[in-house]
Design brief:
This protein is α+β, with helices and mostly antiparallel strands. It has four helices and three strands, in the order αβααββα.
Length: 99
Amino acid sequence: MYAVDLLILRALSEAPLHGYAITRWIRNASHDALTIEEGSLYPALHRLQEAGALKAEWKQSETGCKAKFYRLTAAGKRALGDETSAWRAFVKAVDKVIS
């Protein structure tokens, strides 16, 4: 799984969101350290949807426009837990190497 996939899953663990709201959530949660561009976001959303981690439906956004909202499935919640554990193990291993 890609790091962007993990970030998206984490953002959607809070609530269903549309694409722009996902990027805003990641940017805010990282205090502007991480920005996901459309060219990375939408392929990741489609990949996660094809894998069964996300479901999507069209709804009206807070601005009144129609937007595709994504939500985690049960498989997505499992993937979030698994990938979070894997990421933390990776970070520990890298920290050992660079320390």
